[in-house]
Amino acid sequence: MQALQVLALLLLSGVFGKDLQECEDLGNGSYLCREIESFEQLNRYVGKNWKSVKVVNEHTGIERAEDGELPGLSTLLQLDLSESGGVTLGEKGLQDFKALQKLNLTHAQLDELKSEQFPNPSEMINFDVSYNDILAITTKLMSGFGNLVYANFSENLIAVIEPNAFRHMKNLRFLDLTTNYQENITLGENANLRFLSISNNNLRDFQWCHLRVLPKLEELHLHSNWLEHLDMGIFYALPNLRVLNVSNNNLFEIKRTLFMAPGEIAPLELLDYSSNIVKVLDDSVFCRLKKLRTLNLWLNQINRIHPRAFLGLSSLQTLHLQGNKISILPDDVFANLTALEKLDLSKNNIQKLGLRVFGERILRKLIYLDLSNNYIADLHPLALSSMPFIKELRLRRNRLVSLDLRMFAPLRQLQLLTINENRLEEIDGEILDTLDRLNHLELNNNRLTFLPDLKSSQNLLQLRNITLEGNPWQCLCLDEITSWLNGRHVSYARPSSAYFSGRKPLCVVTPMDKCLRDLQETKAQGIVESYEKI
Ligand SMILES: *[C@@H]1O[C@H](CO)[C@@H](O)[C@H](O)[C@H]1NC(C)=O
Ligand SMILES: *[C@@H]1O[C@H](CO)[C@@H](O)[C@H](O)[C@H]1NC(C)=O
Ligand SMILES: *[C@@H]1O[C@H](CO)[C@@H](O)[C@H](O)[C@H]1NC(C)=O
Ligand SMILES: *[C@@H]1O[C@H](CO)[C@@H](O)[C@H](O)[C@H]1NC(C)=O
Ligand SMILES: *[C@@H]1O[C@H](CO)[C@@H](O)[C@H](O)[C@H]1NC(C)=O
Ligand SMILES: *[C@@H]1O[C@H](CO)[C@@H](O)[C@H](O)[C@H]1NC(C)=O
Ligand SMILES: *[C@@H]1O[C@H](CO)[C@@H](O)[C@H](O)[C@H]1NC(C)=O
Q1: What range defines the domain where residue 79 resides?
Q2: Whole-angstrom distance between the N-terminal and C-terminal Cα of the chain?
Q3: Nearest CA to 39 among 11, 70, 7?
Q4: Stronger pLDDT, 68 or 73, i.e. the higher one
Q5: Which is the closest atom of ligand 2 to the Cα of 128?
Q6: 27 lines ligand 1 (CB under 6 A)
Q7: Is 319 exposed, middle or buried (0-12, 13-18, 19+ CB in 10 A)?
Q8: Which end of the chain is least crowded, N or C, by CB within 10 Å?
Q9: Which ligand sits closest to the CA of 189?
Q10: Residue 482: CB within 6 Å of ligand 2?
Q11: May I ask which residue range the UniProt record assigns to the signal sequence (predicted)?
């Protein structure tokens, strides 16, 4: 009896072993098949309940070799050949996959797609053919794909799209043509398209009227092309556009006429104009963009901003202006941006921040302000008074010599403050007393020789991290500071910095027997000079 069972098992594994080895049941009708050389071979494995197949080949590609019919393939809904080691479609191609709805042909080494290689009409909904060498998209090819919702042609060599190739695709919502060789937009009409990317192609200036018939388009990505000038009236062509990315082109201006819209209010929520060569922001240039939430202008050459440049941006939450050439911020330039949460002005040439730059109205939502990497020497003590809810203030790498209590007193919510790499000589005890929510403070690389006496104070209760090194601390003062920090479990050690010797920041040994807390006297003692000699 037992011997018979063993024999039966051996027989079974002998007969079906190959199947078990080559196709693995993943559940729910999904199968993973390995080392499949042809669709004929796949046809022999596919069972009645199979819905989805992924072919994974390490040693071979897959091809359509013979001419006969392959009825086993006609019920499959999904086919993934992205790891099949290259696909040779031949004359009949994928014709036998009559019910196919989702096809992944990425990395298939294809240079051409022909309509005869697909069932016609096709049930296809989701078609990913990215990472191939396809040169053209023809009207004939696309005519069979009336059900397509998602088409991904990114990472090919497509220079030619026959005009109106996508015109009859009433269900198409996503069309991705990123990284191809398109020089012109020849897409034509499409009733339902929501997402279009022609980023990283060779697009030159074109007129929105070429896109006129994309009434539902919500996202248009055109970054990394050769655009120099954007035509006017984008919302006449694209009345539902919410996202526009024209980053990394050669655009040299932003014109108010670009945003002309049929109604008073334009629908745009995100505008990415970063990495271009814009120099000037004119009066009221964005005034129609009342729904705009994110404005990316980083890495342009902006050196002049009109005081009313940001007028009307009443929903704006994030404004990125870093990496420009801004030296002067006019009065009221950020006034009335009452939805603003995050403002980045780092890496500019700002020398002075005046009293009225942020206007008089309280910016209740503003919690993040980055002014680091500028040349700010003159920071008006009340410049930040309209942002009492700010949590992160970054002032690293400027030219501040002193801090004014009036600036910090209103900032009761501050959690992170960076004022490292400035020229601070002294920090007033009362300033530290106001920072009762602060948990991260960067003070390194200033000219501080002492801090106010911390022992008795009840301030800085939330402090978790501080950076100290690179200051000409008197060693006795530093000892007091570090023992206070140790007692509070605040971390300060960054031994990887060059300003540490072991676990301790470098400091200046003085002839005094206590920490001297008088700026005039420490100057008289030449402490900074002796530190610089270390
Ligand atoms: C099978 O499908 C059901 C319902 O769609 C799902 O909940 C389940 O996680 C799937 N199982 C596997 C193994 O994919
Ligand atoms: C196609 O397969 C590739 C690689 O496996 C994967 O990254 C991609 O997301 C797939 N495409 C779709 C639309 O599922
Ligand atoms: C198209 O495919 C590329 C490459 O896999 C991917 O990065 C991109 O997100 C896809 N596009 C869409 C709209 O899904
Ligand atoms: C771009 O395409 C449009 C519309 O198809 C056509 O009118 C225009 O002449 C083309 N421009 C170039 C430079 O090929
Ligand atoms: C816009 O395109 C740039 C590439 O130049 C990319 O880095 C950025 O993430 C895109 N922005 C959005 C909001 O998608
Ligand atoms: C800000 O609002 C005030 C009062 O509504 C108005 O007088 C002023 O012109 C506005 N300034 C800017 C720059 O938006
Ligand atoms: C802050 O200090 C804690 C230890 O107290 C440390 O784990 C953490 O990495 C530090 N964070 C930063 C941003 O330095």
Answers
A1: 15-109
A2: 91
A3: 70
A4: 73
A5: 13
A6: yes
A7: buried
A8: N
A9: 4
A10: no
A11: 1-17
CA of 442 to the centre of ligand 7 (A): 12
DSSP string, 470-525: SS--BHHHHHHHHHHHHHHT-B---TTSTTEETTEE--B--SSSS----HHHHHHT
Q: In 3D, which of 11, 68, 5 has the Cα closest to residue 38?
A: 68
The reply to whether 201 falls in a domain is no
Q: What's the pLDDT at 441?
A: 96
Find the 86 Cα to ligand 1 centroid distance in Å.
30
Residue 5 has pLDDT above 50, yes or no: no
Specify if 33 maps to a domain: yes
Residue 291 has pLDDT above 90, yes or no: yes
Domain assignment of residue 51, yes or no: yes
- CA–CA distance from 23 to each of 29, 43, 293 (Å)? 12, 12, 50
Instruction: Tell me which residue of 333, 321, 408, 407 sits closest to 371, measured CA to CA.
Output: 321
Distance 14 CA to ligand 5 centre (A): 55
Longest dimension (CA), the chain: 105
| 163 CA: nearest ligand 4 atom | 5
- The answer to whether residues 230 and 251 touch, using CB atoms and an 8 Å cutoff, is yes
How far, in Å, CA of 100 to CA of 94, rounded?
9
How far is the centre of ligand 5, averaged over its atoms, from the C-alpha of 19 (Å)? 46
Say how many Å lie between the CA of residue 346 and the centre of ligand 6: 25
133 within domain boundaries: no
% of the chain at pLDDT higher than 70: 96
Cα 318 to averaged position of ligand 5 atoms, centre (Å): 15
Residue 52: nearest ligand to its CA? 1
- pLDDT given for residue 207 in this prediction: 87
Please give the pLDDT value at position 9: 44
| Distances in whole angstroms, Cα of residue 391 to Cα of each of 88, 162, 210, 438, 458 | 58, 53, 46, 9, 20
How many domains does the chain fold into?
1
At residue 25, does pLDDT exceed 80? yes
Give this prediction's pTM.
0.90
Q: Give the pLDDT confidence of 506-527 residue by residue, as tens digits.
A: 888 888 889 999 888 888 888 7
State whether the beta carbon of 420 lies less than 6 angstroms from ligand 2.
no
Between CA 128 and CA 134, with CA 133 as vertex, the angle to 5 degrees is 70
Q: What percent of the chain has pLDDT over 90?
A: 74
Q: What is the average per-residue pLDDT within 456-480? A: 89
Ligand nearest to the CA of 26: 1
